[in-house]
Design brief:
It is a single chain. The protein is of the alpha/beta class. The chain is built from eight helices and 16 strands. The strands form three sheets. The protein has a six-stranded mixed β-sheet with strand order 2-3-4-16-9-6. Strand 2 and strand 3 form a beta hairpin. The longest helix has 17 residues. It is globular, with a radius of gyration of 22 Å. The protein starts with 11 loop residues before the first helix and ends with a strand. Bound molecules: zinc ion (ZN). Zinc ion binds next to loops.
């Protein structure tokens, strides 16, 4: 198992010493702009074309996940806050939640002496029987019944959508798609991720549900925005009746990308600039004195400069808004698969050797 990544290479006392030394040097040189501990010249949310002014540390962008609940079968999972099926609220008709890597019987991605894990994807490295067992545990955790039909899709980073029926439950090979929806009770729809962003949507009036898988490719192809359009067609959903939850994925804190992604997003979205940040490693001296580290080179191309980070959660929130959902109907659960690699599988952090989490949604049978 990967150790959790914690920002900063130093102990606190070393950090204080380094900062004090730098303070003294700069003061001596007459270069001090700000001695109050906040970063000199830093502003949040500056557009990439004014990249030099927009510098954030990883810590500023990190949003931890809520603590998982642990059920008697050992599965640690995260229900959408306010959507828990045992609650009496307007969402009591919904099954929903996000898995973690904790619980389960997989041995493929953990140390020999560690407990089994909840890999829910039929990955090459894992034992098929262990994954099947884990899927039954996850279905049991969320619905109370290990035999609840779990409908998956074969994800291809597209904007292809499918409408699931009970007939899909017995399907040998899942259909290729990155979004799945239904209005049939008793089915648990699932998307699988290990850094990509899962999005769950429910129509409170028409009682329909959907799950979307949004990596950067699917996000550029507007999987979520197109998916909501499809819900309108299939179920007559009205955007104002929809609620949505964006689950754990790789956070803007950790998702360093190349400049070609900025170009891709700029070609598609007029708000693309809001989705990218320039991020320094959480070096306290760089955080306090970012102007010392500016270079003339393009973002992402400087050995000491910032790297360009993409905020996929915000990108998908913007698509939900563009599709007509109300801002207060959209929840971002938080959680960074890379920062919290003890809790989540992260494809990037484990260099491709990772299990898969599931994000699930369904309509409880009456
Ligand atoms: Zn992170």
């Amino acid at each position: 198992m990967q150790p959790p990544t914690t920002p900063g290479p130093h102990f606190a006392s070393d950090v204080d010493h380094d900062v004090r030394t730098t303070d003294a040097l700069l003061q001596h040189a007459g270069l001090v702009r700000n001695l109050r501990g906040s970063a000199a010249g830093v502003t949040r949310r500056v557009r990439p074309e004014r990249a030099a002014q927009k510098m954030l540390s990883k810590a500023e962008l990190y949003e931890p996940a809520p603590a998982p609940i642990v059920v008697p079968n050992g599965v640690h999972w995260i229900p959408v806050p306010g959507w828990h099926p045992s609650g009496r609220g307007r969402s009591s008709w919904l099954w929903n939640g996000f898995s973690t890597r904790k619980g389960g019987v997989s041995r493929a991605y953990c140390a020999d002496d560690a407990q089994g894990e909840l890999n829910l994807g039929f990955t090459a490295a894992d034992d098929r029987e262990a994954v099947s067992k884990n899927r039954r545990l996850m279905a049991e955790a969320v619905t109370g019944h290990a035999g609840t039909p779990l409908i998956t899709i074969r994800q291809i980073h597209s904007n292809v959508l499918v409408r699931a029926t009970a007939g899909d439950a017995g399907r040998e090979r899942p259909r290729k798609a990155d979004g799945i929806m239904t209005d049939e009770p008793g089915l648990l729809l699932a998307v699988q991720t290990a850094d990509c962003i899962p999005v769950l949507v429910a129509d409170r009036k028409r009682r329909a549900v959907a799950a979307f898988h949004a990596g950067w490719r699917g996000t550029v192809k507007r999987i979520v925005e197109i998916g909501i359009g499809r819900m309108r067609l299939e179920f007559g959903s009205k955007p104002e009746d929809l609620i949505a939850a964006i689950g754990p994925g790789i956070g803007a804190c950790c998702y360093a990308v190349g400049e070609e992604l900025l170009s891709s997003f700029q070609s598609q979205f007029d708000y693309a600039a809001d989705l990218f940040h320039e991020v320094y490693d959480s070096d306290p001296i760089r955080t306090k004195y970012p102007m010392l580290f500016l270079t003339q080179r393009a973002p992402g191309h400087s050995p000491i400069g910032p790297s360009l980070h993409l905020d996929l959660v915000e990108a998908n929130r913007r698509q939900l808004l563009a599709a007509g959902l109300k801002p207060n109907a959209i929840q971002s659960i938080g959680g960074c698969t890379s920062c919290q690699s003890d809790l989540f599988f992260s494809h990037r952090t484990s260099h491709g050797h990772a299990g898969r989490m599931m994000s699930v949604i369904g309509i409880k049978p009456r």
